[in-house]
Structures are given as structure tokens and as C-alpha cells.
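From the methods appendix. Each design record in this collection lists the discretized structure first, followed by the designed amino acid sequence. Records were kept in a plain field format so they could be parsed without special tools. The example shown here is representative of the layout used throughout.

RECORD:
C-ALPHA CELLS (709 positions):
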């Protein structure tokens, strides 16, 4: 088990956030988070105030091929409408997830978006019906509260309120938890669950900030204001226009109107329309997913066995062709931003009559007609003929049912979630700035403590980098786990990392517990050695001390095992060595090879061959060699000889230090220091120390003792 709590964070511990859209703006939401080499993209929207390529998030600013997972929070166009573009027209290769209802609605919604966005304006559509169809097949669905894992990234969807199918995501990468709210609401609603507080505390919260420090008037008051305004408009013979996004909040408004009409018989002759090309399909989806809605509406469904989305007083209208515009009526019509379509056409038609009323119930995005008209202009431009203006006399009211949290709700939620880092997204720059200041002053007493809350409000394409170090904990599995270790006992095994999960295993358990197969590499090398078997053995004994002779004296073949690792067969003038490859045995094999290659040219060999003293006890030769060397070699050359022998033994792991008095042997992360004048070895690893000392002893014994020894 290894914990790294005391180390300081390195570059791999850097969490990074970047908004490609939705940074200090509302629209084209797209955020990218990455940590430990894993990348998650959150949402892929378009900006409702723009069209064509200009409506996209800044996809060119990021290498989308690095994204592992893309999570879509909900079906609204500012969160989902550029998804087919990402999947079909960029180098994005990741997997895409959304909830079931989101996927069901997304299909119809984007089909309509393709038509609308391709129908007018000067820019080409972002993608075709075919793109939409092809990408749709590859979208995977998630259930609320079910945790998914994709290449080490874990994520769980939670209810976000807001619209049917909307999800908040808890994303976990290597122990770091990031919670993304998407658009969310905390208010009790007629059909939706309100947003859930996640059961675990994330390190980072990415929160929407649409309403900033704004505070909503209570829901009941808003409903009363809405129904009163509609009622009085009808009484004076006027028409009510409620521009809405086709799906989501529209259904909530319809539930309010249906209920009001049911309790006001005097209104029942007045028609309420729901006008959208998608009206029929959308209502079908809503009827299908009643089980995903809140307890209230599910109970109503169960008790009355009629679907709450089968309306008595509301008529669906696909287009204005079938609409008889005769007298008072209520029109809930898409699109919500009044940029084009049915709602815009009716606005222009009804604007000159002061008896009529326009009621804005959604959030109006900067740069759209829905936002401009809130300034109460006296005239508005015609959609079909921009040079013509239309007088505006109809009344304009804003009563929000947008299902975004207000300041009180957002701030209480941020408290409850308890993250120490809060990144604000999905808010206009000034609104977001105010929210940031309000939150900072709220948390001012925590400044400098470990409870401090940091707030970020990044602009698009400006990266937020936060250092995060997560403790690494390895699970001991298999035979290693059979006996719990005593306090302070070292547990040794193979550390296997898969998708950030660490396991410590015995090598024999690798296959069973990790699926990793182990293989043994046997290496073999043959060299030509003209010297006879006795000389070969003699030289090996000089180098390695006692060697194990496996063959009989009568055998023609000499078989020797060296340091229990390298097997040598010498026959005729061929020496073949064989060993099982690893760092240690490779080094020994290298040394054996070095000895074999030098046997024929060694002066000792020449001397022994000429004297014909082969087979004599090696000890006598030691003395002979020492005697010869004693007279001629200087200290320097003795060090050189010992050094050469160590080099032969340890290969590239051996390095003579610059001043020539010491040397270093590095094997993996172990290091041994050799001091030549003292003939000592310093090494924290007892095993390596012993090995080096053994070689040093033998090396020193075959060259002359150094001065003073
Ligand atoms: Zn939304
Ligand atoms: Zn949104």
C-alpha cells in the first residue's frame, strides 16, 4: 500500500477547466475538464442569438480527439444542438451519454432545428438530417443514479429539475470529484423533481449562474400574476402571446393554464393553443415519460388513469395555416427567443393592437428579439422585410417560469454541495461577476482557513488550472492478502494500475486478478572460445568465485551454473550460455560473456597453457598472478583493473565517477557507491551491497593489494 499524501502536486496533478462556450455568457454551453490524462466534455450547445458556424462553441481552440466522454445535461439547444456537428464534422472520437428522455426529445428537437436553421438567414445549416440520424445511433443513455465507468472515468446522473430529462453529473477521475449542475432548478414544480443535492461532496462544483444575484418572486405570486394578466387581457378582447421553447417549460405553462381553465368555466369558450411544429411528437414524449417526473404528477396519473398531458382545454397547432385568428385567445408558441417562426409571426401580427399582451416567461438570451423587446421599443423590425418596422402597442410583461435557480437557491445549493472550488458558467458577464462577489463576501470569514471557498468566473477559452493531489491507495489482492501484514512489515508484489485502480498482487496472481499474462524470456548466446574447459572454468571462478559444476569430469561437455542464474555449456570450441532474462540476470550474463570473450587473450591463459598446469587448484594461480602484478602495476592501473572487472560484472549499470576514486552502480532505483581506496561499498539495499562486495573482493584478490592494504 502506498500513500503519497506528503508529496507536493506535480504537473500530472493539475486539474484543468476550459469553457469553449457558456463562459461569461448564456448560450453554446460547452466545457472541458481534464485530469490525469482523461478528458470529459460537458454539453455541446449553440448560441441562440447567432446562426451557422458563428453559433458554435470555440471548437477550433481544442483538440477534440482527446475527449474521452461527452455528457449532455439536457436537450435545450444551448446545451445539445451542436452535438451532431461535433460527432460528424470534427475529430471527436469519444463516447456520448445523455438520459433516456433527453435522447427521445433530442431526436425531434434537432430534426426541427435542422429545418429551421437551414430555412432562413445567410448561413448554411451546421449539419444535415443524415448527420443527425448517424450520430443519434451512437448516443448512449444513462439512468439517474446509476454510475457508469468509461476508461477510468466514473460518472453518475442526478435530477436537475429544469426540464424533463435534465441531469447534473458527478464525474470522478482518479479520485477527483467534479459536479456539473447543467441548468437546474430547486423549486417545486407541477411536473418535475427539483434538483438533488449530491450524496458525496465534490472537490469542484461547476454551477450555472443564469440569474446571478437576482431573486425570484414566490412561485404562487408569479402564477397569480400570470393568470390574472391572461384573464384580464381576454376580458378586454385581447390575445395573449407566450413565446416558449417548444419543449420543457412549455409543458409546465400548459399544466398551469389547463388547471386555471378547469376552474374558470367563463374562460372555457376561449381557446388555448400550443403552437409548435413538434407539438404532437413532444406531447407524446411527455406522456411516455410521466414515470420520470415528480411524485405529484405520477400520483395524478395513477389515480385518474388519464395522462396529465392529455389536455382538455389546450389545442395543438402545427402551423398557423389552420389557425382562425378571430378574437381573444391564448397562444403558447415556439420559438422562445422570437427570432423567427410562429411566435415571431404572431408578435408582428399582434404588436399594433394595445389590447394584446406579450408575456415573456423564459430566460431571454442577450442579442435576441425576446431580450430586445423587454426594453419596450415603440416599433419592431419585420422579420421578412428588415427595412419595414411595425408599431408596437401590445403590452409586454416578464413573468419568469424559466426553472433556473435564483441567488438564494443557488447559494444554498452551493453551501449544501460543499465544494471548495466553484466555477461559474452559463451567466452573462456582469450577472456572473455580481454573483461571484456576493458569494465571496458570504464566505469571507472562511478566507485563509481550510474551509475557504474559491470562486472562478472564466471567460471562453481561458483555462482554469487547479492543483489536486489524490491519495493513491492500492488494494492488496490474492495470496498477498491471505495474511494481514504486521505493523511496519514490508509487502512486496507487482503494482498493477488499471483505470486508476491500484492492486498489489503476487506475480502468480497476475493472470487471475488482473488478466495480465506473464511470460518468461529465455535468452541464449553462443561464442567461440578456443581455450579448453579448464581455462573457461578457471576464469569464471576468478570472476564469480565458486561456480556450480553440473557435468561430470568424464563428460566431454562442461556444464556450469553461474550465480544460480546463467547456465554455461562448453563443448569443443563453443561456449553457450542460457539465462532467464531480467535486469539482474542480464547483467550477470553480460559479465559471463565478457569473461568468455577475454579468455583466449588473457595472459593467465597463455601462461597456464604454456606451463600445462590446467586443472591445478586455482588458489595457487591467484598467488602467482598477484606476484606478477605486484611488481609492475601502479595504484591507478589497479583501480582500472578492478573497475574493468566491475564493469564486466555490472555492464551499463556501472559508472566510474569523474575523479576516478569512486564508482556508482545503479540498478533500477537502487544505487551502490564503491570506494576504491577503502575497498568499501555503501548501499541502502543489503542484497545489492552484498553482491557488489562479493565482486569487489574477488576483483581485489586477483590484482595487487592497494597501497596501505
Ligand atoms: Zn436549459
Ligand atoms: Zn441553458
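DESIGN:
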Amino acid at each position: 500500500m502506498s500513500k503519497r499524501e506528503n508529496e507536493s502536486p506535480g504537473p500530472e496533478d493539475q486539474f484543468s477547466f476550459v469553457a469553449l462556450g457558456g463562459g461569461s455568457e448564456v448560450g453554446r454551453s460547452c466545457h472541458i475538464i481534464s485530469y490525469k490524462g482523461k478528458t470529459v466534455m460537458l454539453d455541446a450547445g449553440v448560441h441562440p442569438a447567432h446562426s451557422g458556424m458563428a453559433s458554435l462553441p470555440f471548437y477550433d481552440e481544442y483538440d477534440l480527439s482527446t475527449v474521452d466522454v461527452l455528457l449532455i445535461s439536457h436537450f435545450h439547444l444551448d446545451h445539445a444542438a451542436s452535438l451532431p456537428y461535433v460527432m460528424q464534422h470534427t475529430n471527436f472520437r469519444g463516447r456520448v451519454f445523455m438520459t433516456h428522455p433527453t435522447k427521445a426529445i433530442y431526436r425531434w428537437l434537432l430534426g426541427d432545428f435542422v429545418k429551421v436553421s437551414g430555412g432562413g438567414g445567410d448561413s448554411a445549416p451546421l449539419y444535415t438530417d443524415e448527420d443527425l440520424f448517424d450520430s443519434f445511433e451512437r448516443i448512449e443513455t444513462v439512468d439517474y443514479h446509476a454510475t457508469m465507468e468509461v476508461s477510468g472515468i466514473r460518472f453518475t446522473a442526478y435530477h436537475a429539475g429544469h426540464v424533463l430529462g435534465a441531469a447534473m453529473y458527478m464525474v470522478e477521475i482518479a479520485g477527483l470529484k467534479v459536479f456539473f449542475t447543467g441548468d437546474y432548478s430547486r423549486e417545486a414544480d407541477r411536473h418535475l423533481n427539483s434538483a438533488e443535492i449530491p450524496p458525496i461532496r465534490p472537490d469542484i462544483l461547476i454551477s450555472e449562474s443564469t440569474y446571478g444575484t437576482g431573486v425570484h418572486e414566490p412561485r404562487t405570486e408569479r402564477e397569480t400574476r400570470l393568470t390574472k394578466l391572461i384573464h384580464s387581457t381576454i376580458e378586454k378582447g385581447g390575445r395573449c402571446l407566450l413565446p416558449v421553447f417548444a419543449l420543457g417549460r412549455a409543458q409546465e405553462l400548459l399544466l398551469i393554464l389547463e388547471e386555471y381553465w378547469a376552474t374558470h368555466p367563463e374562460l372555457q369558450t376561449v381557446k388555448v393553443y400550443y403552437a409548435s411544429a413538434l407539438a404532437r411528437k413532444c406531447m407524446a414524449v411527455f406522456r411516455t415519460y410521466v414515470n420520470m417526473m415528480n411524485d405529484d404528477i405520477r400520483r395524478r396519473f395513477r389515480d385518474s388513469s388519464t395522462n396529465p398531458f392529455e389536455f382538455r382545454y389546450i389545442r395543438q397547432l402545427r402551423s398557423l395555416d389552420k389557425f382562425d385568428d378571430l378574437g381573444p385567445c391564448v397562444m403558447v408558441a415556439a420559438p422562445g427567443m422570437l427570432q423567427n417562426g410562429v411566435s415571431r409571426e404572431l408578435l408582428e401580427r399582434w404588436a399594433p393592437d394595445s389590447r394584446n399582451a406579450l408575456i415573456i416567461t423564459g430566460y431571454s438570451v442577450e442579442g435576441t428579439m425576446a431580450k430586445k423587446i423587454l426594453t419596450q421599443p415603440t416599433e419592431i423590425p419585420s422579420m421578412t422585410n428588415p427595412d419595414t418596422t411595425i408599431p408596437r402597442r401590445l403590452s409586454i410583461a416578464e413573468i419568469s417560469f424559466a426553472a433556473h435557480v435564483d441567488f438564494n437557491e443557488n447559494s444554498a445549493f452551493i453551501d449544501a454541495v460543499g465544494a471548495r472550488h466553484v466555477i461559474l458558467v452559463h451567466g452573462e458577464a456582469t450577472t456572473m461577476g455580481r454573483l461571484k462577489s456576493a458569494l465571496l463576501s458570504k464566505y469571507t470569514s472562511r478566507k485563509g482557513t481550510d474551509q475557504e471557498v474559491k470562486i472562478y468566473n472564466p471567460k471562453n477559452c481561458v483555462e482554469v488550472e487547479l492543483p489536486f493531489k489524490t491519495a493513491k491507495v492500492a488494494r492488496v489482492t490474492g495470496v498477498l492478502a491471505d495474511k494481514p501484514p504486521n505493523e511496519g512489515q514490508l509487502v512486496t508484489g507487482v503494482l498493477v494500475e488499471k483505470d486508476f485502480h491500484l492492486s498489489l498482487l503476487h506475480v502468480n496472481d497476475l493472470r487471475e486478478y488482473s488478466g495480465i499474462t506473464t511470460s518468461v524470456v529465455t535468452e541464449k548466446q553462443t561464442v567461440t572460445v578456443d581455450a579448453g574447459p579448464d581455462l573457461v572454468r578457471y576464469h569464471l571462478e576468478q570472476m564469480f568465485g565458486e561456480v556450480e559444476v553440473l557435468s561430470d569430469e568424464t563428460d566431454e561437455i562442461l556444464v556450469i551454473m553461474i550465480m544460480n542464474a546463467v547456465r554455461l555449456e562448453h563443448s569443443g570450441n563453443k561456449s553457450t550460455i542460457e539465462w532467464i532474462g531480467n535486469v539482474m540476470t542480464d547483467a550477470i550474463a553480460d559479465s559471463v560473456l565478457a569473461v568468455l570473450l577475454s579468455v583466449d587473450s588473457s595472459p593467465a591463459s597463455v601462461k597456464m597453457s604454456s606451463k600445462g598446469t590446467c586443472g591445478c587448484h586455482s588458489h595457487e594461480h591467484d598467488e602467482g598472478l598477484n606476484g606478477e602484478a605486484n611488481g609492475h602495476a601502479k595504484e591507478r592501473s589497479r583501480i582500472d583493473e578492478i573497475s574493468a572487472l566491475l564493469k564486466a560484472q555490472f555492464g551499463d549499470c556501472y559508472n566510474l565517477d569523474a575523479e576516478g576514486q569512486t564508482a556508482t552502480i545503479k540498478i533500477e532505483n537502487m544505487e551502490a557507491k564503491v570506494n576504491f581506496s577503502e575497498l568499501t561499498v555503501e548501499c541502502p539495499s543489503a542484497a545489492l551491497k552484498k553482491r557488489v562486495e562479493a565482486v569487489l573482493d574477488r576483483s581485489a584478490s586477483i590484482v595487487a593489494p592497494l597501497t596501505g592494504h
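APPENDIX NOTE: The chain is about 30% helix and 25% strand.
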